[in-house]
Design brief:
Elements: H1 6-9, E1 15-18, E2 23-26, H2 40-50, H3 56-62, E3 70-72, E4 78-81, E5 110-112, E6 133-135, E7 142-143, E8 157-159, E9 164-165, E10 181-183, E11 190-191, E12 205-207, E13 212-215, E14 229-231, E15 236-237, H4 250-253, H5 264-267, H6 272-281, E16 290-293, E17 298-303, E18 309-315, H7 317-320, H8 323-336, E19 347-352, E20 357-362, E21 367-368, H9 369-374, H10 376-381, H11 384-403, E22 409-410, E23 419-421, E24 427-429, E25 436-437, H12 459-462, H13 467-483, H14 497-500, H15 518-534, H16 545-553, H17 568-573
Parallel strand pairs: 4-5, 5-6, 6-8, 7-9, 8-10, 10-12, 11-13, 12-14, 13-15
Antiparallel strand pairs: 1-2, 3-4, 16-17, 17-18, 18-20, 19-20, 21-23, 22-25, 23-24
Helix pairs in contact: 11-13, 11-15, 11-16, 13-15
Amino acid sequence: MAIYTSILMVSIQLLLCASSNSYTILPPGTQRNATSKVSPLDKEAYALFSLHWWSIQYNISNRCNNWPGVECNDNGSITKLSPPKDSTYTFKRGLYIRDIDFSVFSNLVHLDLSQMDLYELPLGLNSLKKLILLNISSNNLQDEIPFSLANFPQLMVFDVSNNSFTGQIPHEIGMLENLVTLDLSFNKFSGSIPLSLSHVTSLNHLRISNNQLDGELPTTILGLSQLKTVDLSRNRFLGIGICVLRARYRRKHKNKAAKHGDLFSIWNYNGKIAFEDIIEATQDFDIRYCIGTGAYGSVYKAKLPSGKTVALKKLHKTESENPSYYKSFCNEVEVLTEIRHRNIIRLYGYCLHNRCMFLVYEYLERGSLFCILADEIEAQELNWSKRVNIIKGTAYALAHMHHHCTPPIVHRDVSSNNILLNSELEVCVSDFGTARLLDPDSSNQTLLVGTYGYVAPELAYTMSVTTKCDVYSFGVVALETMMGHHPGEFISTLTKPSTQQLLVKDVLDPRIPLPKSRKDMQDVVHVVKLALACLSSDPKSRPSMQVVANEFLASKAPIHVSFSDVSMYQLMNQEVYVIDKN
């Protein structure tokens, strides 16, 4: 908005005249009258010039139209001060600020003094009761905050990050009922988080990382149901010493009681009891409780005092210090807190402690699909209907991630190792450490990740992740489940005539009898056909996971084709539904 103050309504040749006690702006040649009065707008204008935020040359040539970072209301009073931070404009950052009484800007609602090389704050900030945004971040400010937050009842954004403020976080923070963003990070605040913070129920973003705070995290923070982003990392908190990630999920769990052994106490950042239960249940993660390893970390089984059995994925010390593993850990927390689906592993909680970092999942008794297929006895338990159901469950999970989550989620490591089964052989997709939330405004380029033999071929040269990458991996898993082992080089020969002439019955797992019922025959043929479509070398030719899921749900009209005569060529080139001739 153009500035309407008197300083901008007079000609470019206006003169600044000042007495020892007052000042005003007079046109050239005008004599100062003893009875002249200084208006509030004149005071604002004089203070603005005295800040020296723009060069004289810039003032003369542009001040009458548009000074960057300055806005006024319809009466001409300044409402926003936010000097430009780039090199386009020449101004002296903090040199003159300490000499200005900011109380003259009585209608100011937006004050941004960040990156101004300030060693002390200007006078008069306490009187700016209309402030909605106050940003004094990235300066050289020290000691305690030199004003009372109670003076800013309308404040919505308060940012003092990247300074050297000391002392305790002001308890007046609880009086800011409209506060949406609070950033106190990268300072030297000490003591505990004030209990009054729980009164700021409108808070969306809370960042208090990289300070010297200690004590236990107050459970009253759980009442902040609007929180979307929380970061309390790199402090000295007791109990679970937590680095908090995104907290949107807490609204779903805020009413759960933190009883003895209640795992949700970890969700709620008060995991002292649950943490001690887990340490005791695993005897401090003794090797005897280890049941396997994942892409990162080791997996443990723990039975809690409540009788609940859970799986724990624990990062080793060297892994927790590795940025890539730490990122995978945080990524898995973020993704799994956003997903709820019967065929996706359920994350109960997590803990980032100075002793260890671990994730807490539902425990699935039968383990991975890979291990079951590799075991001669267990593989025979997987008859054709059970194998088809495993493939269906995997398809439903991926379709949910790709088409029912916003933004879409790509797993990037779909493999038989990451398909887990419970005691009823129901499937859950797991291990989301490399999962990716697709950005519609980005190329989504990525490093090559995933398990060898399951990675879509186009990733080798495009490095751009799409949902079709998961579709390819699903095709490998589906074919592996039907064949009883990883298809390996068989995939690369699918376009060869010799492979296409193979009969479907000859590529199925020989450890179990061929399907006998009409339904099993049709289902097996249907799975193999969909798997082959998903394995197309051209991503655009692959069906979406939603199409695959819908195919499983659709009824199939049979035609009279003998199951024993169905070839791979037929499944790759035409619709084939079979019935038993008998």
